[in-house]
Specification:
This protein has 501 residues and is an all-alpha fold. It has one domain: Up-down Bundle (Amino acid/polyamine transporter I), CATH 1.20.1740.10. It contains 16 helices and four strands. 38% of the residues are buried. This is Amino acid permease 7.
Length: 501
């Protein structure tokens, strides 16, 4: 560095010092800006790396999400769709199913954007449906949503008891007809089979929690595919490939445009309403959508991936539902049973296998999907309410031969046993498959599939009241409310009529 031999004046010395001072300030600001940019870049990498705050690695893709949706949607509800088609006829039946598919498509799109709040791409994750309701709608609506969810869980458990007992009875009937012929007396009640299912559930309900039941969930999903595919194949074979080669009746497509005739117009209206409730039970998957979306990796953003998965899954499910319902109605016509598989007796081994798959699926589904959340909620509440109570918190290790040690808790044993007994007792009092499914579908359809997604979307997108978009969403919600009420009324009337008869 070179120095001037001429001594600078005081003025220039002050100017130079002031310039150096500002240069230092600028340099410090530049360092702060760079550090802030590095922090921001690291935050963005965390958001898109697939890791959550608890270091959960998300690796899900479009196809894994499609698999989860189809496994969850295709279940006991598919068995009632042929009966629904028989009530609505060849025109109204397919149209109704396509309408429910469209409504499910819109609902899923609305919920996908609620996975992150307040921004659907960079906001905070809402890993469950009830978390999204709490963040967007507040504590009061969270309680309402939770109540509806647990009522849905209990109701579906009752429906599973009825369906499983029906399938077990059909195995016995199918074998009876195979041995004794068509004139054999093979009718029997369902009470004993409901008791058997209840005893099995009391035993399996003592499995501690979800983390010990992954194998049961896999078995349940595989079984649902098996019996739904067999039902479709049996209906298809009865229409396209007749059982009796020389029989003209088996070669014809049965059914009519208006569906099954009834004694009065009022009875027809009730059955149509009930069919709408059954279709509503078979389609929506809104309660588990955000849980599935929480498994997806990013980038791309989770909401975009989930929307693609929803479109694909709904198209596949709708095609499968239409095939099952149409071939079932074409095979049986006015004699279409409420549960599709109860209409087939031959080949008896395939019918038995399909019904056995239903029982295995519902044993797992009853526990994994619909009972364990109730157990976890009640037991967590009891533990927090009575932290010093030995009956609630004390565990006893019981060593069983061959099996690992069982941690037995008296409160868990009593509560879970009473819960299974209550669902079994209600199913024994109201053993009506289609009517119970209709009530459950109507109760869940509007509030959980339509109302909450619409309201959360309006809040998140800050859509102004009485704007065009607001009116469209509110109108969509009101139309679905009317359909849900019609399905509920028709199903309640069906239960009353069946009980009185």
């Amino acid at each position: 560095m070179y120095y001037l031999y001429i001594k600078p004046s005081t003025y220039f010395r002050r100017v130079a010092l002031r310039v150096l001072y500002y240069l230092q300030i600028f340099r410090g600001c530049l360092r702060i800006y760079r550090s802030e940019m590095e922090v921001q870049r690291s935050l963005e990498q965390e958001k898109t790396s697939g890791k959550d705050d608890v270091d959960v690695i998300r690796t899900g893709t479009v196809w894994t999400a499609v698999a989860h949706i189809i496994s969850a949607v295709i279940g006991a509800g598919v068995l009632s769709l042929a009966w629904c088609m028989a009530q609505l006829g060849w025109i109204a039946g397919p149209i109704a199913m396509l309408c429910f598919a469209f409504v499910t498509f819109i609902s899923s799109f609305l919920i996908c954007d609620c996975y992150r709040s307040p921004d659907p791409i960079t906001g905070t994750r809402n890993p469950s449906y009830i978390d999204a309701v709490r963040v967007n709608l507040g504590k009061k609506w969270t309680w309402v949503c939770g109540l509806l969810q647990y009522v849905s869980f209990c109701g579906t458990g009752i429906a599973y008891v009825i369906t499983s007992a029906t399938s077990m009875r059909e195995i016995q009937i199918s074998n009876c007809y195979h041995k004794g012929g068509e004139k054999a007396h093979c009718q029997t009640g369902m009470t004993i089979f409901m008791l058997i299912f209840g005893i099995v559930q009391i035993a399996t309900s003592q499995i501690p929690d979800f983390h010990n039941m992954a194998w049961l969930s896999v078995v349940a999903a595989l079984m649902s595919f098996c019996y739904a595919t067999i039902g479709l194949g049996l209906g298809f074979s009865n229409v396209i490939v007749p059982i009796g080669v020389g029989s003209v009746e088996n070669k014809s497509i049965k059914g009519s445009i208006v569906g099954i005739p009834t004694r009065s117009s009022a009875q027809k209206i009730w059955l149509v309403f009930q069919a709408l409730g059954d279709i509503a039970f078979a389609y929506p998957y809104s309660i588990i959508l955000l849980e599935i979306q929480d498994t997806l990796k990013s980038p791309p953003p989770e909401n975009r991936t989930m929307k693609k998965a929803s479109i694909t899954a709904i198209v596949i499910t709708t095609f499968f539902y239409l095939c099952c319902s149409c071939f079932g109605y074409a095979a049986f016509g006015n004699n279409t049973p409420g549960n599709l598989l109860t209409g087939f007796n031959e080949p008896f081994w395939l019918v038995d296998f399909a019904n056995a798959c239903i029982v295995l699926h519902l044993v797992g589904g009853y526990q994994v999907v619909y009972s364990q959340p109730v157990f976890a909620f009640v037991e967590k509440w009891a533990t927090q309410k009575y932290p010093e109570n030995r009956f609630v918190n004390k565990f006893y290790a019981i060593k069983l031969p061959v099996l690992p040690a069982l941690q037995l808790n008296l409160f868990r044993l009593c509560f879970r046993t009473l819960y299974v007994m209550s669902t079994t007792a209600i199913a024994m009092a109201f053993p009506y498959f289609n009517q119970v499914l209709g009530i459950l579908g109507a109760l869940n359809f509007w509030p959980l599939t339509i109302y909450f997604p619409v309201e959360m979307y309006i809040v998140q997108k800050q859509i102004g009241a009485w704007s065009r978009k607001w009116l469209l969403l509110k109108g969509f919600s009101m139309i679905c409310l009317i359909v849900s009420l019609l399905g509920l009324i028709g199903s309640i009337e069906g239960i009353i009529s069946a009980k009185l008869a």
